[in-house]
Specification:
70% helix; 2 strands; two-stranded parallel ribbon; mainly alpha; rod-shaped; 2% strand
């Protein structure tokens, strides 16, 4: 009798072990599936444009700081700003991309870290602690070496060179126009090979006949 009970217990134990092994395999496959499925999703999320409205003056910055008192608003802005940064970039590059997406460069010329200035009085940027914490949180998620002291030094450096950075922005805008002119010149060169270039104003029907003659002449 005892032998039969022991045998049944042995069979039950073996069945339990087999079930546990099967569950472990299923969990492993599920983990692999979620890992693969999250990769493309993360990439697609990052490629979407951020809907964050850039802060252009001290009133908007003050209002933004007030909004961050609400955890829901922190989550909202965290999602919007996270799109700007990338895993493959360094913390410094992400920080520069983020600061230019959050704050207008002209605004940064009106701020200093502690509010002190040799010339005109400036706004004390370190007073906007929730804004700074959000900035740190966004960059830190991609590079954990970017800490609070790094964040403080970064903002001090940005505001120290804010005038130069603001001027550099305007220079880059003017360079873009030159590129447009070069592109227009390239288009003119490409159009030079068209058979109807140099012809006077003629009707579409005449142009079609000319195209046919030109095509037949080549063949």
């Amino acid at each position: 009798m005892m032998s039969a009970i022991q045998q049944n217990q042995k069979v039950l134990f073996e069945n339990q072990q087999n079930i546990l092994k099967g569950l472990a395999k299923i969990n492993t496959k599920l983990d692999e599936y979620f890992t693969r499925s999250q990769g493309p999703f993360q990439q697609e999320r990052q490629e979407q444009p951020s809907h964050f409205k850039i802060i252009t003056n001290i009133d908007e910055l003050t209002n933004f700081e007030e909004q961050l008192k609400c955890p829901l608003m922190v989550s909202k802005y965290f999602e919007q700003l996270s799109i700007i940064c990338r895993h493959k970039k360094s913390a410094q590059n992400n920080a520069y991309a983020l600061v230019d997406s959050m704050f207008d460069r002209k605004l940064m010329t009106c701020c200093s870290w502690g509010g002190g200035s040799k010339g005109e009085p400036k706004h004390c940027f370190k007073a906007f602690s929730k804004t700074i914490d959000l900035f740190l949180k966004v960059v830190h998620q991609y590079d954990e070496t970017f800490t609070k002291p790094n964040c403080v030094d970064f903002f001090k450096n940005v505001m120290r060179h804010s005038t130069k950075r603001n001027k550099a922005k305007r220079v880059r805008n003017s360079t873009t126009k030159k590129k447009n002119k070069n592109r227009a010149a390239e288009n003119q060169l490409q159009d030079a090979d068209r058979p109807d270039q140099g012809l006077p104003n003629i009707s579409d029907q005449t142009k079609l006949a000319y195209y046919l003659l030109h095509f037949c002449g080549r063949h």
